[in-house]
Amino acid sequence: MPINIEEIRSQFPVLHQEVNGKPLVYFDNAATTQKPFSVMQAINGYYELDNSNIHRGAHTLADRATRYFENTRTAVKNFINAKEDAEIIFTKGTTESINLVAATFGRMEIGKGDEIIISTMEHHSNIVPWQMLSKEKGAILKIIPISEAGEIDIENFKKLLTEKTKLVSIVHVSNALGTINPVEEIIKLAHEVGAKVLLDGAQSTNHLEVDVQKLDCDFLAFSAHKLYGPTGLGVLYGKREILENMPPYQGGGEMIKEVSFEKTTYNDIPFKFEAGTPNIADVIAFGKAIEFIEELGKKAIKQHEDELLNYATKALNDIKGFIPVGTSKEKVSVISFNINGMHPFDVGMMLDANGIAVRTGHHCTQPLMQRLGLEGTVRASFSVYNTKSEIDQMVTSVAKIAKIKNK
Amino acid sequence: MSSIQDVQNEIIGEFEILGDDKESTIFYIMELGSNLPEFPDTERKDENIIKGCQSKVWLTAGMKEDKIQFLADSNTDITKGLISLLIRVLSGRTPQEIINAELSFIDKIGMGNIIGSQRSNGLAAMIKQMKLYALAYQAKQNA
């Protein structure tokens, strides 16, 4: 069923405003999506009626808050088709999820001379933790090269795999280019040499069906705020047997079973990895964000976003001076580009003057920009609430801006 | 030569004509940048890059008849426009004038709203670097 765009837009109050005297066009969805009323109401509702610390309270409010909190864990489990709730760990975001794996699994399993494989198009948060770990352990970080179009050739990946490969940590969808990587094949090949695979799902979980059992990834990291949910909240999925063998991440309350000054026994998963009072309100609200996505259906969302992507790509390609960056055949609704003779910062600022919000710069992927020989790009990323008329507004502005240097 | 305050008043007047239209204001700033004198390639080196700017800004200074002459360039057109405004106000002044200068035009034209907080930090870094040059030249004069 096609989606009712006006009905969807009516759920997002932030979209209905003027910026610099023009109707706001929000095309920075890969950075963060806007939040529907239901998410905001859940945050307020929790503080108005249910605020209480979870898991150990003997009173009704604590019980209610615990139930709502754990309901979201179940919703997340269903959302990515994990086997059980215990495989879902709440974190601060994708970055913390990756750092958690590096600090626990990484410290335990990766030693001197072992190899970690990442790709050229990783976000800094999937580079730096592995660099730090490699330095600490004397491990080797190997990089999968990419083509000019921004794609991984699976043959190049095969060449890097050895019996020393302990982990492949790879981005499912590139934040800077929108490329969808062939992760199913990557996971299969990595498992053949006994390596584990962490999937950075920050940009995929909102556009694609991500089924952790079908993909067979060992870890999946993603953020709530890119899924219409609150900021400062993320998820780490891990297979039970791996999580159980991992040492704890942080010490504190919640993650223990028993503590004496001589010895501490740790709690079961997922609580072993959730030290301290968690971000209760936002976890509860995240449940509403997942509901929002599931009511529309990922298939319908993807169809709408693909339509916008194709429409915008076609119109922008007709503009003199428009240079697309990242032209992979498999893409989500992200268009990265430059204007001949202009710096992306200037283009971004001029678009903002026209009410259009885009991202400019290196998108936290400096090695990728170096590979492409660019200082940065302008990135427009579309979401379910965007419209063709918003794209028209952007195309008109881009054409006007491009004309300055491309007469 | 008109005083630092006179030049600032001129700039305020020009931006008043542009009014609240952000797009025309940005176009105007970019146009100002395109009129900057050619920056020598030999000076486009790392030690001349101003720290604290998101885009690249190169700045050098020389002394001519007790007055400091600034030369600058940037890889973005808007930043070029911003530094050209600073050069218009501060170049060709004595070190003491530069050190004492209060650049009130930046607030008066509402630059913070036009260029946003990140670029405002960059602009502050440019001013700081120009004043540091002035201090260095003054110290040299007094040596």
TrEMBL record, chain A:
<dbReference type="InterPro" id="IPR020578">
    <property type="entry name" value="Aminotrans_V_PyrdxlP_BS"/>
</dbReference>
<comment type="similarity">
    <text>Belongs to the class-V pyridoxal-phosphate-dependent aminotransferase family. Csd subfamily.</text>
</comment>
<dbReference type="InterPro" id="IPR010970">
    <property type="entry name" value="Cys_dSase_SufS"/>
</dbReference>
<keyword id="KW-0663">Pyridoxal phosphate</keyword>
<dbReference type="GO" id="GO:0006534">
    <property type="term" value="P:cysteine metabolic process"/>
</dbReference>
<keyword id="KW-0808">Transferase</keyword>
<dbReference type="InterPro" id="IPR015422">
    <property type="entry name" value="PyrdxlP-dep_Trfase_small"/>
</dbReference>
<dbReference type="InterPro" id="IPR015424">
    <property type="entry name" value="PyrdxlP-dep_Trfase"/>
</dbReference>
<dbReference type="InterPro" id="IPR016454">
    <property type="entry name" value="Cysteine_dSase"/>
</dbReference>
<feature type="domain" description="Aminotransferase class V">
    <location>
        <begin position="25"/>
        <end position="393"/>
    </location>
</feature>
<protein>
    <recommendedName>
        <fullName>Cysteine desulfurase</fullName>
        <ecNumber>2.8.1.7</ecNumber>
    </recommendedName>
</protein>
<dbReference type="InterPro" id="IPR000192">
    <property type="entry name" value="Aminotrans_V_dom"/>
</dbReference>
<dbReference type="GO" id="GO:0030170">
    <property type="term" value="F:pyridoxal phosphate binding"/>
</dbReference>
<dbReference type="Pfam" id="PF00266">
    <property type="entry name" value="Aminotran_5"/>
</dbReference>
<comment type="function">
    <text>Catalyzes the removal of elemental sulfur and selenium atoms from L-cysteine, L-cystine, L-selenocysteine, and L-selenocystine to produce L-alanine.</text>
</comment>
<dbReference type="InterPro" id="IPR015421">
    <property type="entry name" value="PyrdxlP-dep_Trfase_major"/>
</dbReference>
<dbReference type="GO" id="GO:0031071">
    <property type="term" value="F:cysteine desulfurase activity"/>
</dbReference>
From TrEMBL, chain B:
<dbReference type="InterPro" id="IPR003808">
    <property type="entry name" value="Fe-S_metab-assoc_dom"/>
</dbReference>
<dbReference type="Pfam" id="PF02657">
    <property type="entry name" value="SufE"/>
</dbReference>
<comment type="similarity">
    <text>Belongs to the SufE family.</text>
</comment>
<feature type="domain" description="Fe-S metabolism associated">
    <location>
        <begin position="20"/>
        <end position="131"/>
    </location>
</feature>
<protein>
    <submittedName>
        <fullName>Sulfur acceptor protein SufE for iron-sulfur cluster assembly</fullName>
    </submittedName>
</protein>
